[in-house]
C-alpha cells in the first residue's frame, strides 16, 4: 500500500470518528450528521476496495 493511500484511509477514518462524536453529542438525533456518517463510511469502504484491487 502506498503512503498516499495510507494517508487517505487515515483521513477518511478520522472523518468517521468525527461524525460519530458529533452524532453522540446530538444524542443520535441529527439526521444531517447521520447522513454525513453514512457517506463517510461508504467513501472509506469504496476507497479501501479500490486500493485492494
Task: Lay out the secondary structure.
Blueprint: H1 3-25, H2 31-52
Concise summary:
The chain has 53 residues and is mainly alpha-helical. It contains two helices and no strands.
Could you characterize what this model shows?
The protein has 2 helices and no strands. With 53 residues, it is an all-alpha fold. Helix 1 packs antiparallel against helix 2. It is elongated.
Radius of gyration: 12 Å
The number of helical runs is 2
Structural class call reads mainly alpha
The proportion of strand residues reads under 5%
Global geometry:
elongated
Order of helices and strands: HH
Helix content class: over 70%
SS elements, strand count = 0
First and last CA, distance: 11 Å
| Low-pLDDT regions | none
* Biggest sheet architecture: none
**What number is the mean pLDDT?**
94
The total number of structural domains is 1
Brief descriptors of the model:
elongated, 2 helices, mainly alpha, 85% helix, 53 residues
Amino acid at each position: 500500500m502506498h503512503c498516499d493511500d495510507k494517508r487517505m484511509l487515515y483521513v477518511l477514518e478520522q472523518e468517521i470518528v468525527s461524525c460519530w462524536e458529533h452524532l453522540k453529542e446530538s444524542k443520535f438525533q441529527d439526521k444531517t450528521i447521520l447522513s454525513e456518517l453514512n457517506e463517510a463510511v461508504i467513501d472509506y469502504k469504496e476507497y479501501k476496495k479500490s486500493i485492494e484491487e
